[in-house]
């Protein structure tokens, strides 16, 4: 078929040349589908025909490009050379709408009819220089140029027009379109949200991200993954006014995110899954985003699961173990965490990981039985941080002090105990000298001084702690009150407690009320003590009621736990008062099964048994000694032990015990210091 | 004047007039003349620095502080743009309040503002309910992926994580609940970050560094160095000291720093400040080895050092035919006016 008529007259006058049409190849059938028939309107820019197969090899002589194509190609050349502004000038003349209009009939003819034929013909019949894809590519490059020049809004608008055009041409989704066009589509889809973001139009950006991921653009995996990652990051950190994605059809059981964090988490998990399936390369930022988001939500176990699923070889295994230890520690599973750390800190693995050592020392410091292990970890930190980092050294010394203090409570020999106590204070003092502002450290020092009966120093620490925290932490107030009570300064202790009650919200007042009640008892004001206890009971009741409506059952259990050993002990006391010995014993045994180191119940059992008769004296002695092992300053235990010795006939031992009891009475707080931690 | 109750604020005009009276001078003309005076107020730098300067000055925040009264009234006027203008000052308010509260000075003015913001935050959540997040389970299909759902199977149960616990009503600020109240206010601020001007976010990062009380390795300076006060007008800038940072405060602080660091703020200066803040918070977390805080801050610090994958440049393959033609046309196209 002959080429279309010359459009010279319809071109703008400035054009010297008048490009003719590309002559289609004699491929009659393709032409019949492809060529715009004569009766179809021919647009001003030249009714160019989509070149048929083998156009490259069968170009006639003479001009074969039309106006649009020429601009597109020229612009592309300029862009390749890096002359962005020149390229823009060239691109500016392209009228996308017009170009699309003329391509529309030809391209959309293909898609519905003659599928088999058309599909196989498509790759070959639509060559690389297909005007449609050329023009679209040109507009894309125009938008990219605008973006490079910083004109993001215009860039976004141009990009959007590309996508709108493609959508209007291929209304049933993009089928197997040729590679160049697909590439343009991919790049435009990727560029559009970024352009909107740079322009500051965040709602548009949100919409375009969703359009990119939810419409059928037939993106390749890497491209899609990049978009997903950027979108997840956008959702997590931009604080836009979020709205849910609109769903064309509701699939049963479909997870539709209800806020930005959910959508971001969903996308990050999908990216990870794509990585497992080999569709994309590993990007460490994905895991970091997940870590951040899940730590914020307080869901460490989900994070741990994701970490565990990462294939080996990505992380060094000690790093993985250390991070897993952190996750499990947050979840409250200290034993698992410690096991991971032990593996990681083995001398064959990574024994110098300071953070892992510190976490291990911290876990050990909470449990008396592994305090020696904790001491070792803490010492390693100190040795490693010696020259470089006084901040970390201070933390190491802090944990060392705590572990040594715990250790001193479980050793049997007095000499060892006093040695350890000196060491403890030394470590804590050195730690404070390196970091004066660590409030927890000041508190721990105060407790240590108090337990070693250095009351003045303890008082100083308590006051400093309250100052450092602005009175917002109630255990500081309690320490102050208890130290004052140990110094027999009951009135001042009461003043402190009242000040604390003023600063404390209702629901947190429980432990303070208890201290107040005991202070009243110590001052022999029983009626006021009763008042205080009544207030405390009301509070417990209120807490039980509010926790009934609390959704999280674990929260409820935790709220009640702190009372259970004490309440059982109280129950036992009541039974004892009524001479119901068996019930009392049962309650006390329950109390210390709930809390293994519950000293008051042991003392109570010991006391009861000592009255039962000579057969029970060894058992009584056993319980009382056990109590003293944990709390050597418990004067009631010494008193009852003295009685046991006396009943057994060991008078000198009895005398020693009674003397200890008397000495302790002079410096006894109304409540044991161990209740503070 | 201080003894009379100021007139209630019902509209933007009232607010602007009142503010002019308090600051002791007319506001810049551009604000009153703007189409949306409240929005102009939000972004005006002069007014912002004047107000911030007052808030940071000594003696601010007392019960009779007229500026606090203005903030209180303006927020309660329920004009959304005015509320945004008040929120803009939350970083400065929180910074000054928390640092001074540790010394237990009387700060009834600040507390009143915080309480009204807190009440609004609680009301926004529908009577103070917890903010929760359902954790997605990839076994359930979603708009973004397909999953094989066996027929007649129930969708997999979802875990629900608590992003922020419920807010109980508070009439006064007690020391033990201070962190909770300020934390909730910071979350309110976080929700509106997209509208906040850059200077507000810069203030926040500056205070973060002070609150953490640790030094950033990026500084390389000694521990005692504190950032100079923005308006060192009244000589002897107050030293903003470290404050207790329990999780209820730490979490919203971290969210805001994350936005400044990784969100589309478009300011390198802000990113640098936020990176410093994140690092200081990390060191603060390691002081007590608070595992949750360590994990989150460590990730932020790492993310700040990672570069985002760029969009690949377009590839140009294949020779272009008709080069001669193109060259011929080129001059014409370039010289023509479109």
UniProtKB/TrEMBL annotation, chain A:
Ranges of compositional bias, category Acidic residues: 28-39
Transmembrane segments: none
One Pfam family from the record: TPR_16
Classification via SMART domains: TPR (SM00028)
Region of interest called Disordered, as start-end residue ranges on this chain: 1-62, 105-128
Keywords: TPR repeat
Ranges of compositional bias, category Low complexity: 43-57
TPR repeat feature ranges: 635-668
InterPro entries linked: NPG1-like (IPR043376), TPR-like_helical_dom_sf (IPR011990), TPR_rpt (IPR019734)
Superkingdom of this protein's organism: Eukaryota
Protein name: Calmodulin-binding protein MPCBP
Organism this protein belongs to: Miscanthus lutarioriparius
Lineage of producing organism: Eukaryota, Viridiplantae, Streptophyta, Embryophyta, Tracheophyta
TrEMBL record, chain B:
A Gene Ontology term for the protein's cellular component: plasma membrane
InterPro entries for the chain: Hyccin
Keyword match Cytoplasm: yes
Superkingdom classification of source: Eukaryota
Subcellular location: Cell membrane; Cytoplasm, Cytosol
Gene Ontology BP, a term: phosphatidylinositol phosphate biosynthetic process
Chief location category: membrane
KW Membrane (keyword) present: yes
Keywords: Cell membrane, Cytoplasm, Membrane
One Pfam entry name: Hyccin
UniProt record similarity statement: Belongs to the Hyccin family.
PANTHER family: HYCCIN, HYCCIN RELATED
Protein name as annotated: Hyccin
């Amino acid at each position: 078929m002959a080429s279309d008529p010359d459009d010279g007259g319809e071109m703008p006058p400035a054009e010297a040349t008048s490009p003719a049409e590309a002559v289609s190849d004699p491929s009659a059938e393709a032409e019949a589908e492809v060529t715009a028939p004569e009766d179809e309107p021919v647009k001003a820019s030249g009714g160019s025909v989509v070149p048929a197969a083998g156009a490259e090899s069968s170009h006639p002589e003479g001009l074969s490009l039309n106006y649009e194509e020429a601009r597109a190609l020229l612009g592309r050349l300029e862009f390749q050379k890096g002359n962005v502004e020149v390229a823009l000038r060239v691109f500016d003349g392209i009228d996308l709408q017009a170009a699309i209009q003329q391509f529309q009939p030809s391209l959309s003819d293909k898609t519905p009819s003659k599928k088999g034929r058309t599909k196989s013909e498509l790759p070959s019949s639509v060559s690389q220089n297909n005007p449609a894809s050329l023009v679209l590519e040109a507009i894309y490059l125009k938008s990219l140029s605008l973006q490079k020049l910083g004109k993001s809004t215009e860039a976004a608008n141009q990009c959007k027009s590309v996508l709108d055009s493609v959508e209007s041409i291929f209304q049933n989704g993009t089928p197997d379109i040729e590679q160049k066009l697909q590439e343009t589509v991919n790049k435009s889809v990727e560029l559009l949200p970024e352009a909107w973001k740079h322009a500051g139009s965040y709602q548009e950006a949100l919409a375009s991200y969703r359009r990119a991921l939810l419409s059928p653009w037939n993106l390749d995996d890497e491209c899609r993954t990049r978009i997903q990652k950027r979108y997840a990051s956008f959702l997590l950190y931009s604080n836009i006014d979020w709205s849910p994605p609109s769903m064309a059809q509701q699939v049963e059981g479909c997870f539709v995110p209800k806020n930005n964090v959910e959508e971001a988490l969903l996308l990050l998990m999908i990216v990870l899954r794509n990585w497992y399936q080999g569709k994309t390369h590993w990007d460490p930022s994905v895991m970091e985003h997940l870590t951040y988001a899940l730590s914020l939500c307080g869901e460490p176990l989900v994070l741990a699961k994701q970490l565990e699923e990462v294939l080996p070889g990505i992380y060094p295994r000690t790093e993985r173990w250390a991070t897993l230890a952190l996750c499990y520690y947050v979840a409250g599973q200290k034993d698992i965490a410690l096991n991971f750390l032990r593996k990681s800190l083995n001398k064959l693995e990574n024994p110098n990981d300071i953070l892992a050592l510190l976490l291990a020392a911290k876990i050990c410091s909470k449990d008396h039985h592994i305090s020696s292990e904790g001491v070792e970890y803490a010492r390693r930190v100190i040795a490693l941080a010696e020259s470089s980092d006084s901040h970390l050294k201070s933390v190491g010394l802090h944990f060392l002090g705590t572990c040594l203090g715990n250790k001193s409570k479980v050793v049997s020999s007095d000499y060892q105990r006093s040695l350890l106590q000196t060491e403890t204070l030394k470590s804590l003092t050195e730690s404070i000298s390196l970091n004066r502002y660590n409030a927890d450290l000041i508190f721990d020092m105060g407790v240590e001084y108090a337990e070693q009966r250095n009351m003045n120093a303890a008082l100083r620490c308590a006051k400093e702690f309250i100052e450092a925290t602005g009175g917002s932490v109630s255990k500081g107030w309690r320490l102050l009150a208890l130290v004052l009570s140990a110094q027999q300064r009951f009135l001042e202790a009461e003043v402190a407690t009242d000040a604390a009650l003023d600063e404390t919200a209702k629901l947190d007042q429980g432990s303070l009320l208890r201290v107040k009640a005991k202070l009243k008892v110590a001052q022999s004001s029983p009626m006021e003590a009763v008042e205080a206890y009544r207030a405390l009971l009301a509070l417990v009741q209120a807490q039980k009621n509010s926790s009934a409506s609390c959704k999280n059952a674990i929260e409820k259990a935790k709220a009640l736990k702190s009372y259970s050993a004490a309440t059982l002990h109280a129950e036992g006391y009541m039974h004892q008062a009524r001479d119901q010995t068996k019930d009392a014993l049962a309650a006390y045994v329950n109390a210390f099964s709930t809390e293994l180191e519950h000293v008051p119940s042991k003392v109570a059992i010991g006391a009861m048994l000592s009255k039962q008769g000579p057969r029970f004296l060894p058992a009584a002695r056993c319980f009382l000694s056990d109590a003293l092992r944990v709390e050597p300053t418990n004067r009631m235990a010494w008193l009852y032990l003295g009685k046991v010795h006396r009943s057994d006939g060991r008078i000198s031992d009895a005398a020693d015990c009674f003397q200890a009891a008397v000495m302790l009475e002079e410096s006894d707080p109304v409540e044991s210091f161990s209740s503070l931690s | 004047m201080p003894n009379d109750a100021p007139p209630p604020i019902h509209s933007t005009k009232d607010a602007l007039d009142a503010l002019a009276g308090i600051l002791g001078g007319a506001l810049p003309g551009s604000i009153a003349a703007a189409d949306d005076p409240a929005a102009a107020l939000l972004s005006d730098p002069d007014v912002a620095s004047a107000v911030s300067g007052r808030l940071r000055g000594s003696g601010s925040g007392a019960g009779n502080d007229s500026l606090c009264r203005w903030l209180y009234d303006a927020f309660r006027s329920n004009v959304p743009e005015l509320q945004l203008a008040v929120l803009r000052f939350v970083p400065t308010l929180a910074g000054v309040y928390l640092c001074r509260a540790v010394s237990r000075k009387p700060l009834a003015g600040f507390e009143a503002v915080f309480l009204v913001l807190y009440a609004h935050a609680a009301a926004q959540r529908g009577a103070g309910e917890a903010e929760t997040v359902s954790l997605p389970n990839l076994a359930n299909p979603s708009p973004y992926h397909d999953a094989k759902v066996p027929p007649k199977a129930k969708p997999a149960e979802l875990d629900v994580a608590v992003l922020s616990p419920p807010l109980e009503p508070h009439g006064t600020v007690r020391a033990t609940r201070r962190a909770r109240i300020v934390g909730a206010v910071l979350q309110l601020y976080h929700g509106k970050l997209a509208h906040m001007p850059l200077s507000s976010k810069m203030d926040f990062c500056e205070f973060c560094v002070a609150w953490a009380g640790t030094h950033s390795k990026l500084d390389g300076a000694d521990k005692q160095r504190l950032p100079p006060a923005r308006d060192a007008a009244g000589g002897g800038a107050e030293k903003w000291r470290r404050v207790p940072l329990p999780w209820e405060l730490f979490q919203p602080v971290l969210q805001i720093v994350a936005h400044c660091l990784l969100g589309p703020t478009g300011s390198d200066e802000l990113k640098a400040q936020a990176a410093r803040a994140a690092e200081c918070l990390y060191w603060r977390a390691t002081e007590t080895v608070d595992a949750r805080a360590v994990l989150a801050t460590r990730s932020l610090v790492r993310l700040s050092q990672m570069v985002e994958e760029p969009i690949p440049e377009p590839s140009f393959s294949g020779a272009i035919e008709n080069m001669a033609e193109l060259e011929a046309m080129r001059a014409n196209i370039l010289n023509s006016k479109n």
